[in-house]
Fold this protein.
Amino acid sequence: MTESTRPFPPGSYPVVVIGSGPGGIQVSYALRRNGIEHAVISEDPSPGGMFRRWPHFQRLLSWTKPHAPEPAGSRAYERYDWNSLLADEPQARALQPGLMDGTSYFPSRPEMEQNLGLFAERAGIAIRYGCRWTATRRIDDAEGGGFVVETTDGEYRARVLVVAVGVAEPYSPPGIGMELTHHYADVRPAESYAGHRVLMLGDGVNDVPVLAGADISVAMGSATDLAKTSADAVLLSNRLSSLVQAFGLARRTRRIIVENLVWASLYNGLVLPFAALGWITPIWAALGMSASSLLVVLNALRLTRS
């Protein structure tokens, strides 16, 4: 597409919509249906750019059920299809079910991206792609003010600004132990974890599928009951540092178990033959076994140290 054929050149519009995800496309559709002039700009080359990266575990947490008790495309069917966008035209309704491979009620990232692209095509949504939003400033004038949106293509002026950009900048909420974790945005591509054991930590209903599928899963103390029952372990507190302490304790426990097994094997392997041959009297054998057991117990008590 040449510059002369790209829609929405920089200038003044009543409304400017930033983003070509489900929010931006649905808002543009509603504005056009109501006869409101607007411009839609997006940094991505096509609709649904966010779904080319997120979520990392490949599938959405909102379902679409191809086989439901209501006819596809009806208003009642929308209860069973949470991913198709809404439209008045029959050809633009309930698009997501027809794009799914049938292996899951939860669309994959590519399936959701196809859904948005097909809706934009059938609903006639025009978007200026490859236009990156760089800054915004507020203007005040006698007409009520508005916004100036700075982009790589130039400046847009609008009375109303709609920002629908999905995941823009990674955010880490404050909390004890957050510095010990990797941010979701820093997680490697899913295929790089093939053949590795994966641990999942969660607390909500939307975490249940991943908790159930992970090799090791841990629910927070304040987690929902469903999350707790789906996890392998439950933290009694809400401090992430407790999980780090638990791993440290587990490593120490394993080391002491190995030490006790090695000692017991060596002791029994060396002493029992002498006792069987009668070279050690019963009293000394009993004392030796008691001393060995006491040594094992004392070694295990080292775990009680802080």
